[in-house]
Amino acid sequence: MHIVTAKEMYEIDRITMEEYGLDGRILMENAGRAIAKQLEGLLSLNQRITILVGSGNNGGDGFVIGRTMMNAGYSVRILQLVEDNRIRGDAQYHKQLFLSFGGTLLHWNESFDLKELEEETDVWVDAMLGIGAKGALRSPFSEVCTFVNRSERLTVSVDIPSGIPADEESGYTEEAIHADITYIIEAPKLSTFLERYASYYGRWEVVRIGIPNSAWSFIKRAIWSDQSVQQTLPTRSRFSHKGSHGRGFVIGGSQSMPGSVALTSSAALRAGAGLLTIGTVPEAIPSIAAQLTEATFHAMKGQNGWIQAQELDLSPYDSVVIGMGMGRAEETASITRQVVKSAHCPLLIDADGLYHIQHHKSSLRERSHPTVLTPHPGEMAMLSNQTISSVLDHPISISKTFAMEYGVYLVLKGPFTIITTPDGEQWVNLTGNAGLAKGGSGDALAGVLLTMMMQHETIQHALSNGCYLHGKSADYMVEHQHSDRDLLATDVIHGLIQIFRTLSS
Ligand SMILES: NC(=O)C1=CN([C@@H]2O[C@H](COP(=O)(O)OP(=O)(O)OC[C@H]3O[C@@H](n4cnc5c(N)ncnc54)[C@H](OP(=O)(O)O)[C@@H]3O)[C@@H](O)[C@H]2O)[C@@H](O)CC1
Ligand SMILES: [K+]
């Protein structure tokens, strides 16, 4: 399923109408009918529907929904918020149909009594503004949205909750509709995944309106779905041996921080790594070894409990991860630089490794093997010289610019983790929950990703599947054994057992 900007969606509509010849009025009919079908499944016949329409094609969808629901036996009325002469084109065509079918149309005016309307309403359908919304809500949209948000009635939005943008834009008002459900037309828009706007959507579902599949070919952004996982997660052959599942190397840890490297390694093993070696300071080995009997160790030279710069032979490994629990001292900066240069295999840089790389980003471009960076928004801000709030407002475009500029795979972690390839292709992962917002989650993710990188032909598939599995495990654990308060990274690692069992059954 693709993810689009408003501009891209308009282009897809244009291609469908001009190049394939599908009339815009039919698209609008399909949109309204697809949403009406969902509403019929959701509502009982005694629930009275009020549809709020604006001047654009979003309102046009509202007129189709009105006619279709009315025909299905529901009590429907439409409140039009703009003057009659503002409704044109396809929307005007469908408004006429609604009227000729005997629909009830109310017009907004200064003295309109919304309270009275509310008394005759069980469900608000918001068809005021769609992807054509620009800037803060103007009157009377702002007053109507404020009223609907205060009303206790079920609120269903068409395509986008009115008042929020489709794209990574700011400057919108909080009066935007807080929908219970949003039926998104054909493809989620960027704002569906932005911290600032995601909650306005409520629960969302995508409805198809007949856009041809080939019209999407220029869109390089999509959701990583259950189906994507089924198509790309490698199966294990009966004749495989430990060497077939990858030999991984985890570099990190320090005397005072052995835990994160233990989590990464434990996750890598649980995700199915064939062999795993941990490179850390001698002082950290006993405590990690006590937890992880399956790992082997490479005792690295250390000073004051931190890893020192030293020669490392990385040739035996299929993938390397560096950074967790390593500290920010100059010694660990030079080992990071050295590994970036000498790892002739896929390399994942996380945590303190990202801190060290910020001043040597150009060295990433010189690598001839894949490099993966796994920042959280704070680390992304540091790497891209942006503020954290700017990263949160523009995670999709900032990720893309960075990944393309430095030729890296980027995994920007968050409630919707975004995976970007060096070519600028992007995938959004939907699994995971608030239980992952704590220390240790990132360490566990790095371990799962390390293993996936050794077992997939394509790094993007590896990263997308790794993020999916990690989030899916967290979801499973919160559903069956934990809450999103008490979930720990070790629980997420443990939950992988169940996820693999389900996927392979
Ligand atoms: N073939 C297609 O294209 C299909 C499209 N489809 C549907 O069309 C939707 C997009 O339609 P759209 O482009 O007409 O834009 P839409 O969001 O309805 O409204 C624009 C109007 O809003 C106004 N306005 C803007 N900002 C405002 C504000 N802050 N406060 C107040 N008013 C504001 C603006 O006024 P203006 O600024 O021009 O004065 C303009 O008149 C899309 O989301 C989907 O639902 C489907 O039917 C499938 C086929
Ligand atoms: K809307």
UniProtKB/TrEMBL annotation:
UniProt cofactor note: Binds 1 potassium ion per subunit.
EC number from the UniProt entry: 4.2.1.136, 5.1.99.6
Signal sequence coordinates: none
Keywords: ATP-binding, Isomerase, Lyase, Metal-binding, Multifunctional enzyme, NAD, NADP, Nucleotide-binding, Potassium
Family statement drawn from the similarity comment of this UniProt entry: Belongs to the NnrD/CARKD family. In the C-terminal section; belongs to the NnrD/CARKD family.
Job of this protein: Catalyzes the epimerization of the S- and R-forms of NAD(P)HX, a damaged form of NAD(P)H that is a result of enzymatic or heat-dependent hydration. This is a prerequisite for the S-specific NAD(P)H-hydrate dehydratase to allow the repair of both epimers of NAD(P)HX. Catalyzes the dehydration of the S-form of NAD(P)HX at the expense of ADP, which is converted to AMP. Together with NAD(P)HX epimerase, which catalyzes the epimerization of the S- and R-forms, the enzyme allows the repair of both epimers of NAD(P)HX, a damaged form of NAD(P)H that is a result of enzymatic or heat-dependent hydration.
HAMAP family, sorted: NADHX_dehydratase (MF_01965), NADHX_epimerase (MF_01966)
Protein name (database record): Bifunctional NAD(P)H-hydrate repair enzyme
Organism of provenance: Radiobacillus deserti
Gene: nnrD
